[in-house]
């Protein structure tokens, strides 16, 4: 059934005639056609609210306060009525932008409302339709993995992925699998081996996997995240650092892959010898927080082979990259892996968090992977609505198209301002470009915001785009246009 | 404004005339008046659904599938139309039972619906009314602590409580506070000291604080939770094990307190000497998963003194005990502590998770306590409705009254069946009674379920009650009546 709002009326503001003339109509009826600022950002209302909030908790990270009644589509409206084009979308969590009609409808359905307010302990008293939701909503978009376990957030999903790797590793050493010795049962109660074994998780330089203490031990993006925090002494390998454009540096980048893989193999070998074997390897398809760093399909293919060779589970962390932002449902699907990873974790745009997994990574005994809530049915209902819109509106195609437009535009800007920008990179709309210095990056982000464009930072000097899947060409045009004018001012 | 449903019509089933004759009317209009079974539990529909779910994930913990459209008040209806009186309430998470009118109303409000579907990154782009919600909803019920930080689940709240303790401990050693050395900044990136220090968290035997790897290191209730899991080598002290009734064993139990406190002091001292100082002590006011174990106000008062003396933060984990179930908002308020604990964590009945904290336990720098979502505004809106009902219907008083009734009834049964039951204990409705053996406990729980009563287990041989705050005398009567008949059959 075609929805009226898909063919919504295109309003054209005077000052954007040139840009909008080229654009097709918005997917969201009534969406603003351009940013519109009334004050600087943050404005006086945001500044006042900031003071209130900072008395209650550390609020120094707040950029502005928002009005979620007025925000719509790709535009967020702040507490001072500034209308901002949002290419960062709540740290990559909003697939359909703000107030999408399909999202607003979900809880008008009484059955769904009951599922929301009667939130069960899903591992003990799930609702009658929970198995069907797991199958028809979640497994329906699984990257070829037959099992799924839901959790509350990305960090918890990665924590449980680690646990699955530890169990699988130890189970392979047991004869028969699942037989625990009395010594194991007693020693684990006081955190001692053999019950609490000295297994490790291998992660990569600049990786980000969460901020609980175990996922933080696998995170290596910024010191301020890790200072003073007790950590597991787990190993870290170099993540490839490529030269751009990729076409020009094929040989050099391929050597970089080999160097990093050699280090991975060395660690796997040394840690096995040292009786601290690597039970799991965790990696992002594109390092997001750590600098939007890509690695090649070849790198991932060889990494998977090494993981198998040394008996380590391969965990692909798709918390930020999953749910369509790469133009495929899962970013690692661009890598043509021989077989699926052992575990793929998700959260953010998926609303519900959790992980897809192989049969081997499924707990054999009860209560080993368990907690009170085991996720939240309300979030799966939102995901169900999101996936329907993705399909109906062919949003994966739109992401490819808008992503291409954005990437070409960034490359053009890079050529035009080669003394300010470099290394445009990414897949789909998971894009970034480097500024020559961290100071310049911060300045550009600030200027963009004062022109009504919200982007994110990443690594030390990257500008990161993480728009909604409903970002269209006209939005890309506005962004590129304003980015150019910012760079012109700086120049 | 008095609601019509408070004076709802009392329906009286024939076979319960004797019991119901004494009861007042239900707080929930249309609530069933008694359990009503059509099949054994789990019935054929639950069994069929179990098979479906077990293909997708480890589902061995599922007791039955529920119909959340039909469940109401204290009664859960399963997939086979069995009506069960629920004294366990989704592992203690449902303060107002099922489908409470006030909960169903929350998202009929459009502003609230927008807050639900436009879920922001609360640390960066909170809504205009977020500071007010933090203050008027959360701080309004704070146990004398001026700050609150929200999270996604109980385990994440405890993880971040640990982080606060580590930061506070290290900050006290720094001169000036907040000045990080270059060595710290570099070493933390590879999980090495001094940036990643060797601080510890002290927890107690039989404690349960979560299943992420750090909280699991502070959890010591069952081996199956911990086997094969990598753990921090943190210390554990004995939690008091009392003899019951408390009045009869005052002297012995007081000696038990002193023994346990001596061990705590010994650990604090030894770990400081061993350069692995204890930065935080985490404890439940009543150990829930580990056996519904109580400790005296005196024990907690002295524990707080020791924590202060050795510079460790005192974390009271109120995830299961908070939000009114003890007859006070927070269970530790029964202990008359000289000053508030450093941190009080919450989740479950509160819907939103997080922790209240002192000024010292507030991060001074940005991005040290941070994650994408930092909680969920939709859950705070539900909590707001819950707290209004708690106040309006005077539910803390009801908990005291129903709790007293339940406890007296359990003590009576204990006298009547002294060869089957012992050690009735607890505060408010956070109650438990022991069976003489684990096998008997499991048998009793099974029989109770076949009589339409859902309770929980705890420790090795305890029956645990964790009902909603709306449990009334008539529900207590039904439970006690059926418990007696189960015990009579077993006898």
TrEMBL record, chains A, B:
Gene3D superfamilies found in the cross-reference section: Aspartate Aminotransferase, domain 1 (3.90.1150.10), Type I PLP-dependent aspartate aminotransferase-like (Major domain) (3.40.640.10)
Entry keyword Transferase: yes
Gene Ontology annotations for the cellular component aspect, listed alphabetically: mitochondrion
Top enzyme class: transferase
Listed GO MF terms: (S)-3-amino-2-methylpropionate transaminase activity; 4-aminobutyrate:2-oxoglutarate transaminase activity; pyridoxal phosphate binding
Names of required cofactors: pyridoxal 5'-phosphate
SUPFAM superfamilies, A to Z: PLP-dependent transferases
EC id: 2.6.1.19, 2.6.1.22
Keywords: Aminotransferase, Pyridoxal phosphate, Transferase
GO biological process: gamma-aminobutyric acid catabolic process
Family according to the record: Belongs to the class-III pyridoxal-phosphate-dependent aminotransferase family.
NCBIfam families, A to Z: GABAtrns_euk
Protein name: (S)-3-amino-2-methylpropionate transaminase
Species assigned in the record: Ignelater luminosus (Cucubano)
């Amino acid at each position: 059934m075609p929805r009226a709002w898909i063919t919504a009326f295109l309003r054209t503001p005077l000052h954007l005639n040139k840009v909008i003339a080229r654009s097709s109509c918005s997917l969201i009826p009534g969406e603003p056609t351009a940013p519109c600022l009334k004050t600087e950002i943050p404005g006086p209302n945001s500044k006042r609210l900031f003071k209130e909030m900072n008395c209650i908790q550390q609020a120094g990270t707040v950029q502005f306060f928002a009005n979620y009644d007025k925000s719509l589509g790709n535009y967020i409206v702040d507490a001072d009525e500034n209308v901002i084009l949002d290419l960062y979308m709540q740290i990559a969590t909003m697939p359909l932008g703000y107030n999408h009609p399909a999202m607003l409808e979900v809880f008008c359905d009484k059955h769904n409302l009951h599922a929301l307010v009667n939130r069960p302990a899903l591992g003990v008293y799930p609702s009658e339709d929970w198995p069907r939701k797991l199958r028809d909503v979640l497994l329906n978009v699984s990257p070829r993995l037959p099992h799924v376990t839901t959790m509350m957030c990305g960090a918890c999903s990665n924590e449980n992925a680690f646990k699955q790797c530890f169990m699988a590793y130890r189970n392979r050493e047991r004869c028969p699998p699942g037989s625990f010795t009395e010594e194991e049962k007693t020693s684990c109660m006081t955190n001692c081996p053999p019950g609490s074994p000295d297994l490790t998780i291998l992660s990569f330089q600049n990786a980000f996997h969460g901020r609980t203490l175990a996922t933080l031990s696998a995170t290596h993006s910024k010191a301020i995240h890790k200072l003073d925090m007790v950590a597991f002494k787990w190993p870290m390998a170099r993540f490839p650092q490529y030269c751009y454009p990729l076409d020009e540096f094929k040989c050099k980048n391929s050597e970089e892959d080999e160097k990093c893989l050699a280090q991975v193999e060395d660690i796997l070998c040394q840690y096995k010898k040292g009786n601290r074997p690597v039970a799991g390897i965790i990696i992002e398809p594109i390092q997001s927080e750590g600098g939007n760093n890509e690695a090649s399909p070849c790198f991932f293919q060889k990494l998977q082979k090494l993981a198998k060779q040394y008996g380590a589970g391969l965990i692909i962390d798709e918390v930020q990259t999953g749910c369509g932002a790469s133009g495929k449902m899962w970013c690692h699907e661009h890598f043509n892996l021989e077989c699926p990873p052992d575990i793929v974790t998700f959260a953010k745009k998926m609303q519900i968090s959790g992980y897809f997994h192989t049969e081997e990574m499924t707990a054999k005994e009860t209560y080993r992977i368990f907690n009170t809530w085991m996720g939240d049915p309300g979030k799966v209902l939102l995901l169900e609505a999101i996936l329907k819109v993705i399909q109906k509106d062919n949003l994966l195609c739109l992401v490819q198209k808008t992503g291409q437009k954005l990437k070409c535009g960034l490359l053009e800007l890079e050529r035009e301002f080669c003394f300010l920008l470099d290394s445009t990179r990414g897949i789909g709309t998971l894009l970034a470009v480097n500024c020559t210095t961290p100071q310049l990056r911060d300045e550009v982000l600030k200027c963009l915001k004062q022109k009504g464009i919200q982007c994110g930072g990443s690594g030390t000097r990257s500008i990161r785009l993480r728009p909604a899947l409903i970002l269209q060409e006209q939005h890309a045009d506005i962004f590129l246009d304003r980015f150019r004018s910012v760079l012109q001012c700086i120049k």
